[in-house]
Write a structure and sequence with these properties.
The protein has 182 residues and is of the alpha+beta class. It contains four helices and seven strands. Helices cover 25% and strands 22% of the residues. It has a four-stranded antiparallel beta sheet with strand order 4-5-6-7, with no helix packed on it. The protein is flat and about 95 Å long.
């Protein structure tokens, strides 16, 4: 660009900056509509805003007497044994803990029918079948995108359901002759 064009652009930018500065520096005066909202605001009804030292001193001199309940515990203290209490059947007090969910199971007809190793490595493979479909899954890999094979042993397969983190073990299923593969 030529110097004449650069000077024209610089002059335009200076003019624009001056206009923006002027618009921001001149604030409009508050109107009657905005100030009336604050003038009609009701004050809080406080009879005496002074400190009441006599009430503070009596509160400080009071002595705490426990009723036997721990305020930091969710479990209530046991009731003292009386004839009426002994005859009553007490329901458990405290938060109700739901029973743990059942351990995850492999889907449908899925059976662990064998294992093997890679000749040049130490990774063990689990052989699983679902009817006619056969799955070969190494340790640490996922099965059907839902289960992770944790450990392949000689007689068991440990797996984990990925969504819940629950673990279970499945036994090796013997073949038709009743002989477990080795």
């Amino acid at each position: 660009m030529r110097q004449k064009t650069q000077m024209a652009i610089l002059g335009g930018l200076i003019l624009l900056a001056t206009l923006v500065w002027y618009m921001n520096s001149t604030k409009p005066a508050p109107t009657a509509a905005t100030t009336s909202a604050f003038q009609n605001y009701p004050l809080l009804a406080v009879e005496n805003p002074q400190l009441h030292r006599s009430l503070m001193e009596t509160a400080q001199k009071t002595e705490y007497h426990s009723l036997g309940r721990n305020p930091f515990s969710a479990v209530a203290a046991p009731l003292p044994e009386t004839r009426s209490n002994v005859a009553k059947v007490h329901a458990p007090i405290g938060p109700v803990v739901p029973p743990p969910p059942p351990p995850p199971m492999l889907p449908g007809n899925m059976k662990f029918f064998g294992y093997g190793t890679v000749p040049n490595g130490t990774v063990r493979l689990a052989f699983l079948s679902d009817g006619e479909e056969v799955y070969i899954v190494p340790e640490g890999d996922t099965l059907l995108g839902r289960y992770r094979v944790l450990k392949v042993n000689n007689t068991t397969l440990e797996f984990e359901e990925i969504a819940t983190g629950q673990r279970n073990t499945v036994a090796l299923v013997p073949d038709e002759q009743g002989v477990a593969p080795s």
